[in-house]
Design goal:
The complex is a heterodimer of chains A (278) and B (385). Chain A is globular and about 70 Å long. Chain A has a single domain, classed as Rossmann fold (3-Layer(aba) Sandwich), CATH 3.40.50.970. Chain A is α/β, with parallel strands linked by helices and 278 residues long. Chain A is 34% helix and 17% strand. In chain A, helix 1 packs across helix 7 and helix 4 crosses helix 5. Chain B is α/β, with parallel strands linked by helices. Chain B folds into two domains: 185 residues, Rossmann fold (3-Layer(aba) Sandwich); 108 residues, Rossmann fold (3-Layer(aba) Sandwich), CATH 3.40.50.920. In chain B, helix 1 runs parallel beside helix 6, helix 3 packs parallel to helix 4 and helix 10 crosses helix 13. Chain B starts with 11 loop residues before the first strand and ends with a helix. Classes of the chains: A alpha/beta (278), B alpha/beta (385). The interface between A and B is large, with 46 and 51 residues.
């Protein structure tokens, strides 16, 4: 039995799985908190919600959410979720995963799910690093950052995730930092009410193994960076929203309507059978 | 979502190829989800299902690769549908990752591997039996699954149904290891009416939502399965987990209990799973052990040998995994020689040798375009007696 406490959001959490594994100063708890608030404000039917994640620190979020949940292999959350959403289009399918999981090992699945416009709601915790394995460089690590596998400074150009998601066809694209809790909660709510492939990037602090190598030793130092560098640029050009030490463009970048894959496919099934019955 | 469908399961006699027979077998078994990626010589399964699935309200999706295909199959299985994919060697390699996830999360699903010549891209349009060990050990870690080897178009249908039944019964990925010849040849196929077909569905929870433990097994070592959206709020993970499904990555006791059970649910039920076909084994001095397309040439050779007065017999392996170790050992006790013809450099022969103990086992290897001819196997029988 999940132990119930008096906290208004406790019904959204698997309290018997606590304490969580996240380090002090990590942003993942903030993301989970915003997600729980969004569910609460929308009065979501938890029986019809599935949370799916890949491997990595934020990947444990599926386990902490008191819904049906599945923790897949590394990078495969979107592919697994595609099967779920097509098989049961009435379910709300949310993916919570990290930048390495979704954009390195899982990058191909991300762009194809966005292209198909399958109704998956993706929350990406971007901490610029592989946290769970101890701080190696990843597809979003800024140039020249020090990581355990770029001890001389990173020579790889990072992905601009909101630009990538937009180009691949996502119908809703937003970026916030964990400092922007209200906007993030609003974005999650908005995404949960849309039909099609939606993406929210949450720039999230990892002081333990990203920050401390890069002159931001504490969670607070990283939040200071987010505060100083964030610029709200709603519906600005995502191509120009690269994250640099000086500038993090946050806001909504895309909010449009497009028929979802599952709707198109299931309508086709209905048509084929109606024709056959006539 | 309830969609009106024109239910038109095929019945009666047909003339079709093995890939199409497999696809029809899947539909007859209740499969309503296919995810795959085009690959020779399995593409016809995907093509046929892209047309047929929607007629039954089922899903066909072409994924971006075989890794994604296997993952989507697991998602659909957990959403409550019987689900499958079909591929050949290169795709089978990519699927191994999530076959392991299917084992760990006990997701019923069927993987059809139409074997072609390997390694790597190999010979896409030619047959092979080179994925036999990969079907057993391809994903990392210890596990046991089920693999069946059809040797006719009829069996491409029958064993696809059987693979679904076994995957649903034991909550394992079940594999159908066909080869390019059984997949592409045309033969007569007789499909029984739906009410005469044995179709098994997964065990469902009988306890209340609060009491449900998703990985608590029954006496048969298989846990009943709830699906997404039914209100059970269960968690599943590829990490080592307890009966509640929660990760237990530091406990040796949990690892011991879980992984042991995942292997034992197949090992301890192998009497119910194993299928072999025995021909003239009662007094056989020379026993041919074969499977798939090669078993047909072997049958012809054994009959010919009998005509020539040689006491030959055939043990055809319908189940490759679990391997019929006990039966092979019994047969080896009375036989003077065992001959194993395979279209690889020696895979199942290793298992036969292990089970046969002191009885000499002769391996007849062949690679490339053609399987063994009856004459080649007959010659081996003659030399063996």
């Amino acid at each position: 039995m999940v132990q119930k406490t008096d906290h208004p959001l406790s019904k959204y959490l698997r309290e018997d799985m606590m304490p969580h594994i996240w380090c002090g100063g990590c942003g993942n708890g903030i993301i989970l908190n915003c997600f729980a608030h969004a569910l609460d404000e929308l009065k979501m039917d938890l029986d019809k919600l599935v949370v799916i994640s890949g491997i990595g620190c934020i990947g444990r979020m599926a386990g902490y959410t008191n819904t049906d949940s599945f923790h897949t292999t590394h990078g495969r959350s979107i592919a697994f979720a595609t099967g779920v959403k097509l098989a049961s289009p009435e379910l709300e399918v949310v993916i919570a995963s990290g930048d390495g999981d979704l954009f390195a090992i899982g990058g191909n699945h991300f762009i194809h799910a966005a292209r198909r416009n399958i109704g998956l709601k993706v929350i990406c915790a971007n901490n610029f690093i592989y946290g769970m394995t101890g701080g190696q460089l990843g597809p979003t690590t800024p140039l020249e950052s020090l990581t355990t596998t770029s001890p001389y400074g990173n020579s790889e150009h990072p992905f601009n995730l909101v630009h990538l998601a937009t180009a691949a066809g996502a119908i809703y694209v937003a970026r916030w930092t964990t400092l922007h809790v209200r906007m993030l909660t609003q974005s999650i709510k908005k995404m949960l009410q849309k039909e099609g492939f939606c993406f929210i990037e949450v720039v999230s602090p990892c002081p333990e193994i990203f920050g401390r190598h890069n002159k931001m030793r504490t969670g607070l130092d990283m939040m200071e960076w987010f505060k100083k560098a964030s610029v709200v640029g709603n519906f600005s050009d995502p191509a120009k929203a690269e994250i640099t030490p000086e500038r993090i463009v946050v806001g909504e970048f895309v909010d449009m309507e497009k028929l979802s894959y599952e709707k198109l496919f299931h309508e086709k099934i209905a048509q084929i059978n109606e024709k056959a019955i006539q | 979502m309830k969609i009106p469908t024109k239910r038109s399961l095929l019945t009666g006699a047909h003339f079709m190829n093995g890939d199409v027979a497999c696809a029809e077998g899947a539909i007859a078994a209740g499969c309503r989800f296919f995810a795959g990626y085009p690959i020779t010589p399995a593409t016809e399964i995907a093509e046929h299902l892209s047309e047929r699935m929607p007629e039954f309200g089922g899903i066909y999706i072409q994924m971006e690769d075989e890794i994604a295909s296997m993952a989507a199959v697991l998602g659909a299985s957990y959403a409550g549908l019987k689900a499958m994919t079909a591929t050949s060697g290169p795709g089978f390699s990519l699927m191994q990752e999530n076959i392991g996830l299917a084992v760990m999360t006990e997701a019923p699903c069927v993987i059809v591997d139409i074997m072609r010549g390997g390694p790597s891209t190999g010979q896409p349009t030619l047959p092979g039996q080179q994925d036999v060990m990969q079907a057993r050990w391809g994903s990392h870690g210890d596990y046991a699954t089920v693999a069946l080897a059809p040797s006719s178009v009829q069996e491409m249908f029958d064993l696809t149904v059987e693979a679904f039944n076994m995957s649903e019964t034991y909550r394992v990925p079940a594999m159908l290891l066909g080869d390019e010849i059984v997949a592409h040849m045309y033969e007569k196929l007789v499909i029984p009416p739906p009410d005469k077909l044995n179709v098994v569905n997964r065990k469902r929870p009988v306890v209340s939502r609060d009491e449900y433990l998703p990985f608590m097994p029954d006496a048969d070592l298989v846990p009943p399965m709830a699906c997404f959206g039914e209100g059970y709020h269960f968690h599943a993970t590829g990490l080592t987990h307890n009966e509640r499904g929660y990760p237990q990555t530091q406990s040796s006791a949990v690892q011991e209990k879980l992984v042991r059970r995942l292997c034992d649910k197949i090992r301890k039920n192998d009497d119910k799973i194993i299928r072999v076909k025995e021909t003239m084994l009662e007094d056989a001095d020379v026993v041919v052990v074969a499977y798939g397309i090669v078993a047909r040439a072997a049958l012809s050779a054994v009959r010919k040998a009998r005509e020539n007065g040689v006491k030959a017999g055939l043990l055809r392996l319908v189940t490759l995994w679990p391997f019929p170790e006990k039966r092979v050992a019994e047969i080896a006790e009375q036989a003077k020689t065992i001959i194993v013809p395979e279209m690889n450099c020696g895979q199942m022969v290793l298992e036969v040798e292990r089970a046969a103990k002191k009885t000499p086992v002769k391996f007849l290897s062949k690679l490339g375009e053609e399987p063994h001819t009856p004459a080649e196997i007959l010659e081996a029988i003659r030399r063996g007696c």
